[in-house]
Amino acid sequence: MIDFLRGTVAHRETEYVVLDVRGVGYRVFCANPYAVGAGKDGAEVTMYIHYHVREDAHLLFGFLSREEQSLFRLLLDVNGIGPKVAIGVLAGGRPEVIAAAIRQENLSFLTKLPGIGKKTAQRMVLDLKDKLGAWTSAEADGSGFGLLEIAAAGPAANGAWAEAKAALLALGYTEAEADRAGQTVKPKLKGDETADAVTKLALQALFQQSLMK
């Protein structure tokens, strides 16, 4: 069983990074590949791993914190959520923000996460609300509320981009960084993209901008 991998980022795509660990390249699926190692190829990182076995594949899912890893595993306990949906949920915000939304029964926020409909959101609340005591700090000090409000306001404001921008802010990017990504991404949008797709485009843009510095 693999608990974590420590190595350098050799390559990244929209769904995964390739981690070079002593000359062996591990394909690690993660929520936001362009945020791993601050978007820099060659950066040394530690990724906490969930090893998923299917009949046709053995897959590695990676996380930058134990909290992400733990929340991912809790999400897998919810009927209707598989690894790909769970990793999409984590792309929607920090673990404590998502946990706060579940504890607050904030279905408006949860149904904006990739792959989550109303019934699945209700199951998330029912199955996980009482299991999330480790993430009470976001509620206790109010740190999660602003992000939840931003995300909830997204569709009423600017559709998919507003949701994508909220996700960038939840990931720790500044307002200025998100706006710069928006200047690159918004002219390319056709109007039918999902928030998840726009978020990935924005992360790609931020990665490309970091290479130009």
TrEMBL record:
<dbReference type="InterPro" id="IPR000085">
    <property type="entry name" value="RuvA"/>
</dbReference>
<protein>
    <recommendedName>
        <fullName>Holliday junction branch migration complex subunit RuvA</fullName>
    </recommendedName>
</protein>
<keyword id="KW-0227">DNA damage</keyword>
<comment type="function">
    <text>The RuvA-RuvB-RuvC complex processes Holliday junction (HJ) DNA during genetic recombination and DNA repair, while the RuvA-RuvB complex plays an important role in the rescue of blocked DNA replication forks via replication fork reversal (RFR). RuvA specifically binds to HJ cruciform DNA, conferring on it an open structure. The RuvB hexamer acts as an ATP-dependent pump, pulling dsDNA into and through the RuvAB complex. HJ branch migration allows RuvC to scan DNA until it finds its consensus sequence, where it cleaves and resolves the cruciform DNA.</text>
</comment>
<dbReference type="Pfam" id="PF14520">
    <property type="entry name" value="HHH_5"/>
</dbReference>
<dbReference type="InterPro" id="IPR036267">
    <property type="entry name" value="RuvA_C_sf"/>
</dbReference>
<comment type="subunit">
    <text>Homotetramer. Forms an RuvA(8)-RuvB(12)-Holliday junction (HJ) complex. HJ DNA is sandwiched between 2 RuvA tetramers; dsDNA enters through RuvA and exits via RuvB. An RuvB hexamer assembles on each DNA strand where it exits the tetramer. Each RuvB hexamer is contacted by two RuvA subunits (via domain III) on 2 adjacent RuvB subunits; this complex drives branch migration. In the full resolvosome a probable DNA-RuvA(4)-RuvB(12)-RuvC(2) complex forms which resolves the HJ.</text>
</comment>
<keyword id="KW-0233">DNA recombination</keyword>
<feature type="region of interest" description="Domain III">
    <location>
        <begin position="156"/>
        <end position="213"/>
    </location>
</feature>
<feature type="domain" description="Helix-hairpin-helix DNA-binding motif class 1">
    <location>
        <begin position="73"/>
        <end position="92"/>
    </location>
</feature>
<keyword id="KW-0234">DNA repair</keyword>
<dbReference type="Pfam" id="PF01330">
    <property type="entry name" value="RuvA_N"/>
</dbReference>
<feature type="domain" description="Helix-hairpin-helix DNA-binding motif class 1">
    <location>
        <begin position="108"/>
        <end position="127"/>
    </location>
</feature>
<dbReference type="InterPro" id="IPR013849">
    <property type="entry name" value="DNA_helicase_Holl-junc_RuvA_I"/>
</dbReference>
<dbReference type="InterPro" id="IPR012340">
    <property type="entry name" value="NA-bd_OB-fold"/>
</dbReference>
<feature type="region of interest" description="Domain I">
    <location>
        <begin position="1"/>
        <end position="64"/>
    </location>
</feature>
<keyword id="KW-0378">Hydrolase</keyword>
<dbReference type="InterPro" id="IPR003583">
    <property type="entry name" value="Hlx-hairpin-Hlx_DNA-bd_motif"/>
</dbReference>
<dbReference type="Pfam" id="PF07499">
    <property type="entry name" value="RuvA_C"/>
</dbReference>
<dbReference type="InterPro" id="IPR010994">
    <property type="entry name" value="RuvA_2-like"/>
</dbReference>
<dbReference type="GO" id="GO:0003678">
    <property type="term" value="F:DNA helicase activity"/>
</dbReference>
<keyword id="KW-0238">DNA-binding</keyword>
<dbReference type="InterPro" id="IPR011114">
    <property type="entry name" value="RuvA_C"/>
</dbReference>
<keyword id="KW-0963">Cytoplasm</keyword>
<dbReference type="GO" id="GO:0016787">
    <property type="term" value="F:hydrolase activity"/>
</dbReference>
<comment type="similarity">
    <text>Belongs to the RuvA family.</text>
</comment>
